[in-house]
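Figure-free illustration: sequence to structure, shown twice.
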Amino acid sequence: MDLKPRTRVWRNGRLEKEDFPAEQISDYLAESDTVVWLDLCAPDSEGLALISEELGLSPLAVEDAVSGHERPKLDRYDGHLFLNAYAVHLTDDGTGLDKHEISAFITDRALVTVRMDEGFDLDALLKRWDGSSDLAQYGVAYLLHGLLDLIVDGHFEAVQALDDKIDDLESDLFADRIPPDTQQRSYRLRKSLALLRRVVLPMREVVNTLLRRDLEVIPAPMAPYFQDVYDHVLRATEWTDSLRDMVTSLQETRIAMQGNHLNLVMKKLTGWAAVIAVPTAITGFYGENVPYPGFGKHWGFVTSIVVLLVTGVALYAVFRKRDWI
């Protein structure tokens, strides 16, 4: 194991000891009134071998726990359940999304969490457990609820933060001067929402499966707490889908605005070209080979200048009235 394991043991719903050697887990599990938690960070197959033998974990579940890049799921094996999920948080720029995989082996009296890296906030999990210590009497269900509640709350916070970023993007889109990085931010937000949806959407099935009575994992008093987690999952999923549609709409709006702006510029350029074209045509016709009326006389020169100016001003007035320039 790359990092020191974290451990805790509860006896009759009260925290008795923590950070004891992982080798003592079997001793505590031999007592009928205890519940044990073990956390492993970035272990290999050999690191999980000892605990898998003691808890009777399936080799397939152990392989999934150390292989990484598994989809969020809840698998049922003989004697235990295997949970895989992802904790997420936004990057520093607020448009990217980092995800951290966490797996859990769930038995009648033990919860073993396996983290692929140190990105998952383990201290926040312990704080959540300590904040609801009155539920510790329900054993593994209490531990599992704290874990899922923390993960799903992280999903919800990420969705809310992305919503704020999309509001900022919308404000910039309709500003007098669109920031040059608007297109890049829009692309990154859409990519983050797609990634978040792949993480959040399967959690509906995970929590819904846990609520099934035939699994006998959640006692009746804990069912409302898991139902609350399920409601948060549904809200996060629906919110993510709506934000994806909003980003797509903003992208289409930006493209339409660019097209409209280009059409406006082309219309004005065309109008100015028409204003210039008529005097140019007159002077082009009366060139060096065809003298204009009054050629060589003062009044002829003045008259030609007046005709050119009047023609240009008249065209400008007409185009201006029609909002072409």
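We now fold a second protein in the same way, so the two outputs can be compared directly.
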Amino acid sequence: MNDDARTLIAFQGEPGANSDTACRNMYPAMTPMPCPTFEDAFTAVDRGEASLAMIPIENTIAGRVADIHHLLPESDLHIVGEYFLPIHFHLMALPGTDRSAIRTVHSHIHALGQCRKYVRANGWEGIIAGDTAGAAKKVAEAADPSMAALAPELAAQLYGLDIVERDVEDQSNNITRFVVLSKAPFIPARRSEDELIITTFVFRVRNIPAALYKAMGGFATNSVNMTKLESYQIGGLFVATQFYADIEGHPDDANVKLAFEELNFFSDHFRVVGVYRGSDVRKTNSGS
């Protein structure tokens, strides 16, 4: 990896996307590197063209980002951090545009869905774009005052648009969780017993009766808090199910070791994808 690549953090989308904002907020000293697709962002890190990647993995409104649960286990990349970004959509248009002139609103399909009531109440037509920042770029390039975009504030700054109205999302509790990926694993040492460490792993259980129940038993009996467990099909087969899980704990913790031993016994595939310090947002949401 050359020196320039060490300062780059890849993300999917146009400059000004929410992923771009997450990069700038968490790593202000690094340069965000836009990529057309999630796979391109993964490849940039794998080939050493970027040091890290900032990838959205789930949203409180839209749920999980399905592509990531397939790309991450198949890659050799590791989760080394996480970031929670409150999502706000702003109505933006050409400078000086009066909202009465707006006829169409452009944005990503999820953004349009999360602002559906607002768009409908104003009688505008929603037009699907590849991503939110790309929609803002399209409005700027079209120079048509009848067009507006729903996008993050950063997009308005980058493409010279005016924000006509702020925070137009239908629900205020809209948060996206991002994971930071690296080619080299980084497993932090515990700084204190009560430090929040998250371990992410994938596994496939053996084809025996009650295998999943038995595999999960070790986490309950050893008091390991599992914060996420999701399943998805692999290889195009309904009988081939892979599980993705997050737990609170470090692989070196005695209770986690015991839980993993039991999981391994009932699994035919198990891999730790990342060990990283949990965001303070988790503590706030848990009330601790």
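Summary for the second example: The first helix runs from residue 3 to 6.
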